Please model this.
Amino acid sequence: MVLICCMGVVNTQVFKGKAVEKISTKSPSEIIKIKALRDLNLGNGLIIEKNSIITGKMTDVVSPEKFHKNASFTFIPTSYTDPEGLEHSIDKEVKAIYRQKLKPDFKHSEISFGMSSNGKNPLNSAFFFSPSYFSNTKKIIKGEGKEVWEDYKNRNTPWGYGEDINIKAKEVIYFNFPDIE
Model:
C-alpha cells in the first residue's frame, strides 16, 4: 500500500499521426515527418492542429534485441506546417516515444477443424495446422532448412530477437507525448 502511495503518476497523451514517408529503425532517417490526425497540445499555448505536418528528429534508435525486445525510437518535433501552409518552429524540446502497436501474427496462427474424439478413433479428433507449416515444408524440400530453423528460433523461442520498426508512407503511427499543461 505504501509503495502505491509513493509512486508518482506520469501522464501521457497518445498522439495519432500518419507517416508522410517511410520510417525504419533498420535504416533510420535523421529527420521524419508525421501528419497529425488529432490536435496535439505541446504546452505554453502551443496546439498543433489536426492535418498539420510535424517535422522532427528521429533519435535514440534502439535495434531489436534478444528475448523479443522490439526496436524503438524517440521523436523530437522541431517544426510544423499548419493546414494553411504556414511553417512554425517549435523551440521547446519535447520527446515523444514511439508507441509499439500489437500486430496479429497470422503466419504462425493455427487453424483447427474437425470433430471431438470419443477416445475410440483418434482420426476423428480436431486437426491443427498453420499457414507457415506449408511454406516451411516447401522451404525444407528446396533445401532451405537453415532458414526455416532461423525463423523458428527467432519467433518461437524465448531467446529470439524482436522486430525492427518498418512503417510505410501513409501508415498510422502512435507516439506517447508527455502530458504538458
